[in-house]
Amino acid sequence: MAEEKVLVTGATGKVGRELVPLLLDAGLEVKAGTRDPERARRLLGSKVEVVELNYARTETYSHALTWADRVFLMPPPFSPDSDSVIGAFLDWAVAARVRHVVLLSGMTVGDWTDLALRKVELHLERQDTDHTILRPNLYMQNFHPGFISRQLQDGGPVRLPAGQGRVSLVDVRDVAAVAAQVLTGEDHFGSALTLTGSSALSMQEAVGIISSFLPGTVAYQPVSDEEYRAILEEEGWRDGEIQVILGLFESIRAGGREPVLPGVEEILGRPPRTFQAFARELGEDWS
Ligand SMILES: NC(=O)c1ccc[n+]([C@@H]2O[C@H](COP(=O)([O-])OP(=O)(O)OC[C@H]3O[C@@H](n4cnc5c(N)ncnc54)[C@H](OP(=O)(O)O)[C@@H]3O)[C@@H](O)[C@H]2O)c1
Fold first, then answer.
1. How many domains, in total, are found in the chain?
2. pLDDT at position 113, please?
3. Which pTM was predicted?
């Protein structure tokens, strides 16, 4: 049987960058979707074919989709309208007879009906196409290179509206490893998999662990939604994105991100990577 062909959307993103080499190593044919092919080639190297893909430009869809057997589908981060953005792309994928779609969603998304990402999940579940939904918790890599990175690099304090809420942070490398496993078999067709790390930490504990691997001391400072909105506005986030980010922290304060679940270990046959190990690597990189 010919090797399966996988289109990885968001291939330059945190999960996508880890997923592409795993799929290539597994012997699959891979195309990496990006809005900026030149930049993507620099980031991903020459082993993978890069294709232009922009959800906002339907003329970029067909080239990537008519080729693919399976699609790793990544909604743009913190998008308040990912349902309309991704919905059209999904319809094209179904029409192009893609046989399996793996959607990168988020923990607790299944608990809501009015969330844009939940609408994407429901839209996918209504299709005849086989699908798998991945629902990871907050990534460790939000501390670096993600949206918390700037505060950390400035030496803190890391100001977040997380209160004393605890989060079972997950490493994107585990999310990518699960995605690779799901995309190379048929065992998880029709499943929604919640992916967490192995322990739930408060932001104070998480920042404390990172700080212990850095030369100076970085503190955590809980702030209100309004204070955090001002920080995000200053960093250039748009209003709709800010609403999504504030919703995420609301679910952290309410305890929705605290459960430690066995998904990663069940699928990978090993425990999830620890926050301690992530923080140690970060400290080594920065020194
Ligand atoms: N961050 C978290 O903690 C977290 C936790 C759970 C789930 N998730 C899920 O992961 C998704 C992505 O978040 P992330 O933080 O992982 O993002 P990320 O690493 O920052 O990646 C963003 C990616 O989006 C691509 N992109 C942006 N706009 C696009 C468009 N119009 N068309 C095509 N590609 C576009 C970018 O690719 P180019 O610039 O190369 O085009 C980039 O690869 C979220 O929507 C959510 O579903 C995130």
1. 1
2. 83
3. 0.97
